[in-house]
Amino acid sequence: MSAASNSHTILLVQPSHKPTSRTYCDFETLTEALEGVCKIYEEHLKELNPSSLSITYDISQLFDFIDDLQDMACLIFNRDSRAYEPKDKEWIKEKILCSPKKTGRKIR
Hints:
Layout: E1 9-14, E2 23-27, H1 30-48, E3 55-57, H2 59-68, E4 71-78, E5 83-87, H3 89-98, E6 105-107
């Protein structure tokens, strides 16, 4: 990834149309934020399948989840401009696709 992968990142998530569903998480790096997106999906899967001992998913299922969210975006700190740059869902999915952990995952 680029220098952005080492930049402070704020992940903004709005799961439903209700403004009260908005939340955010901040991460020291973009890499950690992308992992955070996966963890949000994994928690969602655990809620849907509480009795399952393990759950496997692939990248297309993760992308469908992201697409189904009302909104998701990242604010990534740019050291040169000393400002946060907004990135949308498509950009997030592209970065997940390019990340080393892009293959299917199994959660317990």
